[in-house]
Amino acid sequence: MKKQVYFFGSNMTEGKKDMKDILGGKGANLAEMANLGIPVPPGFTISTESCAEYYDLGKKIPEHVIAEIEDNLVRLEKAMNAGLGNAEKPLLLSVRSGAAASMPGMMDTILNLGLNDAVVAGLIKKTGNERFAWDSYRRFIQMFGDVVLGVEHHDFEQILGNRKNTKGVKFDTELDAKDLNAVVDEYKKLVKKVTKKDFPTDVKEQLMLAIEAVFSSWNNDRAIHYRRLNDIKGLKGTAVNIQAMVFGNMGETSGTGVCFSRDPSTGENVFYGEFLMNAQGEDVVAGIRTPKPISELKKTMPKVYDELVSYYKKLEQHYKDMQDMEFTIQEGKLYMLQTRNGKRTAQAAVQMAIDMVKEKLIDEKTAVTRVPADSLDQLLHKQLDPIAKKKHKVLGKGLPASPGAAVGRIAFSNDSAIKMKEAGDTVVLVRNDTSPEDLMGMNAAQGILTSKGGMTSHAAVVARGMGRCCVSGCGEAKVDEKEKTLELGGVKLKEGDYITLDGTAGLVYEGQVPTINPELSGSFGELMKFADKFRVLNIRTNADTPKDAMQAIKFGAEGIGLCRTEHMFFEGERIKAVREMILANDVDGRKVALAKIKPFQKQDFIELFKIMDGKPVTIRLLDPPLHEFLPKEEKDIIELAKDMKVPLIALKQKAEKLHEVNPMLGHRGCRLGITFPEITEMQAEAIFEAAKEVAAKGIKVKPEIMIPLVGKVLELKNQKDIVLSVAKRVLGDKPKVEYMIGTMIEIPRAALTADIIAQEAEFFSFGTNDLTQMTLGFSRDDVGSFVPDYLRRGIIEKDPFQVLDRNGVGQLIKMAVEKGRATRPNIKLGICGEHGGDPSSIEFCHMVGLNYVSCSPFRVPIARLAAAQAAIKYAHGCELAGTKTTNGATNAATTLANDKNDSKKEDKSSAKTEVKTKVVVASSKKPKKK
Amino acid sequence: MKKQVYFFGSNMTEGKKDMKDILGGKGANLAEMANLGIPVPPGFTISTESCAEYYDLGKKIPEHVIAEIEDNLVRLEKAMNAGLGNAEKPLLLSVRSGAAASMPGMMDTILNLGLNDAVVAGLIKKTGNERFAWDSYRRFIQMFGDVVLGVEHHDFEQILGNRKNTKGVKFDTELDAKDLNAVVDEYKKLVKKVTKKDFPTDVKEQLMLAIEAVFSSWNNDRAIHYRRLNDIKGLKGTAVNIQAMVFGNMGETSGTGVCFSRDPSTGENVFYGEFLMNAQGEDVVAGIRTPKPISELKKTMPKVYDELVSYYKKLEQHYKDMQDMEFTIQEGKLYMLQTRNGKRTAQAAVQMAIDMVKEKLIDEKTAVTRVPADSLDQLLHKQLDPIAKKKHKVLGKGLPASPGAAVGRIAFSNDSAIKMKEAGDTVVLVRNDTSPEDLMGMNAAQGILTSKGGMTSHAAVVARGMGRCCVSGCGEAKVDEKEKTLELGGVKLKEGDYITLDGTAGLVYEGQVPTINPELSGSFGELMKFADKFRVLNIRTNADTPKDAMQAIKFGAEGIGLCRTEHMFFEGERIKAVREMILANDVDGRKVALAKIKPFQKQDFIELFKIMDGKPVTIRLLDPPLHEFLPKEEKDIIELAKDMKVPLIALKQKAEKLHEVNPMLGHRGCRLGITFPEITEMQAEAIFEAAKEVAAKGIKVKPEIMIPLVGKVLELKNQKDIVLSVAKRVLGDKPKVEYMIGTMIEIPRAALTADIIAQEAEFFSFGTNDLTQMTLGFSRDDVGSFVPDYLRRGIIEKDPFQVLDRNGVGQLIKMAVEKGRATRPNIKLGICGEHGGDPSSIEFCHMVGLNYVSCSPFRVPIARLAAAQAAIKYAHGCELAGTKTTNGATNAATTLANDKNDSKKEDKSSAKTEVKTKVVVASSKKPKKK
Fold it and tell me: Roughly what angle, to the nearest 10 degrees, separates helices A522-534 and A860-873?
């Protein structure tokens, strides 16, 4: 039998930090700390493999594991010179989960295990601290009762609350030993009532039940949801850490705390943390009492503080990353209970990465991988407008628990938050405190406000992880979750009212405060420079307006990958001309209307070309069905009829004629340009006339004209011929404008016949929004009726409109890339669907060898970082098989790990098929920055 | 230079019948007849390659071809002892088109070429027949003027008409030489007026202009449309046949005719044809004079008749197929002008094929290939109900020109016919006579009625080719095409009124006569037996009702490939329960409603299982979105609200909630079964309870349960689990019912991940309707706005919903077949989209190795024949590389000719990529008929 249980502490440590896979993060790090000579209470870790085996056996702990547990328990009892269930020398245990990836609060923990009436008596005798003993006992019954026996946490709390009420006190600490003894009695009765059995007094039984409960918690809904949300895949299960208890609640020389080697909120290189004296760990995290800043420990217990400082420094140096640590002081002696790489805000991640490079702790490549690309979103959206915010009333101040700004309607419950979000509102979740049950509500909210809890409270930690803005511990706030009201700063707000949070300052504002967009400066700018050194993909932006284009340039965009010309059709006077065109009965009528639109279009292009100053600009010809330009409401139709001086009936008939059953698959894209060639002609004229004018001023212009919705090469050919003839007419025989004509690949047939289409197309741009709709048969507008259900049931793991479906849509893209390059080796390949801004999808684009991704201006920095991370991740594969092909491409056969996982997930029985993807790096000659 | 002109006749023949490709059908057959010793007027053929070269040079006859033409003209003059333009010994020429595929009447012909004022005088002198000479001259000017010079045919006819009116006569033959001389003068003036030039008198110029005109006519709209309609592809162009004229209009011992070696309408083995004395060929075909049956020639000219009989027998024996011949008798001497395989009705094709096998003229395999599978449609639809038709008034009688029945609204013009058809009406086109301009109108009509013309008139020939019912030469009918009225049998009908044609009997009925469906008997039945010997594919039917299922069994269906259960939801009481289910607010409410539907569903299945008696029955679970079951109209909604006793507002809200932007891509298929598992459960219960009941009676039952709209294997898994658990519950542990669970492949993603899906699916059925919609991005309901335009512009060649798009959709099918078999070698593969009844698509299904196709009951015989033809066509490839694989499949690599053409068509520049398809024959062990 393979070893399944590993001892740690007391110079008998068997594990180490790189055994995370089988010991879990917590277990591996406990072993590692012990190896480093840092004091940890001894204990042992049951491996993640046992958890897998537990499930394989139909939820049964394997016999050989039980035997190993018993052996290790004996070792532990020896090391502690105490015995589990031994009233003379009582040994109490903690039983904690710990998977290879951090899942804070998602799985179960049991503390103070090993107590029964006999042991509690012994404990009193041994410690002389009656209150401590009874407090430990009541905590144990409560936790064990809730986690293992399924008695409602709430019911225990009610007993405790009643006791406090009877006594007229506010805090648990104000209850004395007698009170707690009474509470224990009531707890036992409650357990008996609910479970029809006495609370188990056999301490071995307690231990085994606790271990099973931890294993079971691996697959509770919360944990499954958390893994899905955080893209945690391929783990065996959770390990279980059984450790001798040390007590922070043994009096005023005892205490417990959480600390970070740097500030997890700002990234500043300062020692950061909180502690509570005479408390157990759960009190700090639960946010019931507000803890004190770590600096105060220096005054309280200077020796302990110095020791703690030396440990944190040692640990950070050892792990080369910011550490998040838990410690307990038992009667003046410091124990480290946990260390792990700390969660941090995006701002902190950036700051630490850059600082650590400067401190030579890590290299630039590592720095680039330290910041989750998606997390930059926190830095790229929303700060309160510094001028405008002055005009808004500050309602109150709390802790700046997670930076950024949130403007939204108040929700007091998970359900409300989710519903409001689904209704299209932005939401601020307001609570006294949060617990793991609130995860989905917090995810739905833009920001979280709590009246209780500190900087390391559940709300604060989770909000930072999720990139949600959070103000915690706002004590002035009176939150009535039942009545759904918030009283703060003399104002009483109800559900649905607007408030604004400033998570960076910890302030709460009344109403909706305008927000502004941030810039790339300082450490953020430096990180971007590092990223640019490593990435291979070019990053373009989707921009239809000069404003967007300018913002994107500031964020480092290297061109426009998608300019949707129809957006230019909606503004002001133009829409009138567009409608005139739609209502025209013949070509001549349409041409008259189009002539009115042309000057506007031309001006739009002139501005874009100037801003992009020589960078390529991909312009997509008119795409949406014409009915989108007509009003929908009866009154608007009547008004339009008057306005256009056409009979109402004629207008209605036209609208009726244009109506489509499935507009998504209807008369749009190049189909419009083919039936109404005059539209294509007008747009081509506007583009080339603008290009000519701008070029004449000595500014370089690179239009790339993109024909949408092509499924057959002859469609492209038809439109290309029109564009070419206009180009010849406008630019003359020797054009000074370099232009290209290409197509979107957004219809499955286009991908399937990409070799043929590439005969006419100089570039492909993957329109993954529509490609996803058609490949999956999902109407983006209609999936609300079943996709949430699919996500809930795990039929799909991610919304395919957010994260590219690699096995389906990705397979078509890969096929099109290969076929396109086979016909036209130097074909330019990009993506302009919304996936162009999603890190996982960008990684895929890198792997299949696209030349660029294009995304919204605010996602350009994310894309730059994600592209660099993909390049770093797959650099090894490239070096492995790296041979230059004729067009300078580097090929490497690397199994695409994610795809493998996807198909394994799809294939629950016997995965015979593995989707493999070659990593093809399109062009190692990245254009130099201009 | 490659030889481009080939002489024939006078023992100097250079061509032969298998040179069709370069000589065209007419040219090759003229050469062949000459080789067989049958008298043909000598002449020469300019090759189809010259036509291609003509277009390559920008519509210019190549110099080297002109030189060859001149050489051959000299040979011809020698052979005829006459000279072109020689007034002493005048040689007149016919100039005729003739492509490799028959395109009757689509391209141009010029007769009597070589006439001018001097030659006509010489002709009079030589023949002593003044009237004949002037008649030839006026015919020549008229034809040349129309075809070469672009003078309206109508304007010539008016001059001729005026002359007849002035003289008070009815027929051209009543005009004498003087009249015709005057007509010639007027014709010349007309030409001068229109063309601003004199009619060309240089005979060489006449010849070259005529040749160019024929080349040009290859690409006139009519010809292009005809080729598209008849799927004629890959030809180089038309050949031009220049032949010495012989004259049927030289008096009462001269004549001309058309004859067939068997009856082209019924297939009967009798000599069949028509002739006119003192006429030229065009008079017979144009239908202006009604010709006499060929049998009368025996009386008129017995020697010529016997000669003709010997020739037709020789030719049929030689070509081993029914011949369609043209002949001319010049002053008692018989000349054969043309022979070709004759067009025929489907009924005739079947009859001839079977007869010829009995006569040992051809073998069974050849017989199977002799009947175009699609043409069986004529035999499989519509005959007049023999009882019901007695109650309808017969308005008149004409010639039974093309069999079958047509019931429709009268249209008097092409435009009306097309418009009416587009409006959803069935149409009968009523004309005095038809010409090639009427092609599209005839295509739009179900039947054609003409007042003029014989059995070989344009209307009759084309109608038979198209499979349209036709009554021609109905002399009593007064058709006023301008006033749009038809007077017949004492009734005056206008456009839009209903009439009924019986093309088999040549009768015209008033109003709408009910029709009945035919049976497989006699020769048809024998042909089906031959087909079954050769085909590899099984043929199933799409049937939702016992009636359909029974009809399909009669037609030879080997199972049900698609039973759409939702069709069962619409009838009578059921729809109420369905609506109750939709309106229910929770699972329990839905279950109550579903319990009401179940007995109906179960009864449906019991009946189907009994009828199919051991044949497999594929049942698709509920597919359409729920809103399809709710009424659309305001008044129906109000009524339903009353009926269901729900508030109107609630009903409207529900309908609003169910509304979808793109229902095609919305909440339907297995997505319904996943969000409402109780629906799947009810359907599975109905199926298994029915199966159990029928099996208990000793009848074998083979249900195949099909989960629709699967895109991911987990969707299938989810639904399969439900079905399996119901099966276990209903059938017990040892079920006596063999059942399978599989899926439709109708979403591109399903095809792309078919290897993974096959882990759960026991069968795939390709739902090519939806697969086409999604792969091409074409909403079937909306393509009307651009697909007609696409067809017109040649961007697509065929409606992809009728004929499977091999390069796009086909590629996905091929991929899914290969991936599916890779995972599950014995997976059962079929198709249930409407393509399952289309011969070209069936051929594709054979090639990619499906096990069966499923089509509507009335297309089952077509599918049987098409499957046999595909097997015969690709048998060679199979023998070539034929190796048995483990599952009994035969593999052969054969380039898929059509796909090659498609991609060539798509690839106008440089076809580097050829789509190749292996012919994979799924199972050579075809199940024995039960």
Answer: 40
* B793 contact residues in A (CB cutoff 8 A): 674, 718
- Contact (CB<8Å) A808/B717: no
Half-sphere exposure for B611 (CA within 13 Å, toward CB): 25
Q: Which residues of A touch B762 (CB under 8 A)?
A: none
Task: Give contacts of A774 with chain B, Cβ < 8 Å.
Answer: 665, 748, 774-775, 777
Q: Do A666 and B779 touch (CB under 8 A)?
A: yes
**Nearest residue in B to A770, CA atom:** B777
Q: Is A153 a catalytic residue?
A: no
What is the distance between the alpha carbons of residues A9 and A6, in angstroms, rounded to a whole number?
10
Of the listed ranges A376-385, B215-224, B322-331, the least confidently predicted one is: A376-385
Average pLDDT over residues A572-579: 85
Query: Is the pLDDT at A488 greater than 50, yes or no?
Result: yes
Which of A470, A832, A845, A878 is an active site residue? Answer: A832
Distance from C-alpha of B476 to C-alpha of A907, rounded to nearest angstrom: 74
Determine, for residues A748 and B753 on separate chains, whether the beta-carbon distance falls below 8 Å.
Answer: no
Q: Does B795 sit within 8 Å of A674, measured CB to CB? A: yes
Q: Could you tell me which of B868, B816, B826 has the C-alpha nearest to residue B846?
A: B868
Residue A541 in this model has a pLDDT that exceeds 90: yes
Of A671, A674, A776, the CB nearest to B747: A776
For chain A, the average pLDDT equals 89
Q: Are B344 and B464 within 8 A, CB to CB? A: yes
pLDDT digits (tens, 9 = 90+) for A635-649: 888 988 998 888 998
Kindly report the average pLDDT of chain B as a whole number: 89
Residues of B in contact with A913 (CB under 8 A): 755-756, 819, 822-823
pLDDT-wise least confident of A18-27, A359-368, A493-502, B887-896: B887-896
Q: Which residues of B touch A665 (CB under 8 A)?
A: 662, 664-665, 773-774, 777-779, 782
Strand (E) or helix (H) holding B383:
strand B383-384
Residue B288, pLDDT score: 66
* pLDDT surpasses 80 at B575: yes
Query: Smallest CA–CA separation between A795 and chain B, in Å?
Result: 6
* CA distance readout (Å), B794 to A404, A744, A782, B802, B810: 57, 22, 34, 16, 20
Q: Could you tell me the strand order of the sheet in which A405-411 lies?
A: A394-397, A507-510, A498-502, A405-411, A427-431, A447-450, A469-472, A399-402
What is residue A90's DSSP assignment?
B
Q: Residue A164: is it exposed, middle or buried by C-beta count within 10 angstroms (0-12/13-18/19+)? A: middle
Buried b / exposed e along A655-686 (16+ C-beta atoms within 10 A): beebebebbbbbbbbbbbbbebebbbbbbbbb
Tell me which of A225, A259, A458, A845 is the catalytic residue.
A458
DSSP string, A517-561: -----HHHHHHHHHHHHH--SEEEEE-SSHHHHHHHHHTT--SEE
Query: Which of the two residues, A426 and A912, has the higher pLDDT score?
Result: A426
Q: Which residue does chain B place closest to A808, by CA atoms?
A: B749
Q: Which residues contact A908 (CB under 8 A, 6 or more apart)?
A: B717
